[in-house]
Amino acid sequence: MSVEAIEKVTQTEQEAKQRKDAAAAESKQKLQTAQRAAQRMLEEARTNAEAQARQMMAQAQAAQRKQQVLDQAAQECQTMKQAARSYLEQAAELIVEKVVNG
Fold first, then answer.
1. How far apart are CA 79 and CA 70, in angstroms?
2. Mean pLDDT of all residues in 13-30
């Protein structure tokens, strides 16, 4: 084989190695970019999930507070009804006494 042919083969091998190295570097860069994008997406999903969970908890707590207020109001209503019934009895007795005694 001539010197020119050997140099041509050597040059071709070097070019092939350079292309291979460049392709490996590009592949590594794309992988890192994809990993960073995946990490950002994961963090964003986690943040959204946490925000949604906080919102759901706040709604549940608000509903619980609302129910407590309603329960308390119902209890107070019941107490007022009982008090009114006792006054009604007293009022009826008073009316009967005034009608009878004139």
1. 14
2. 94
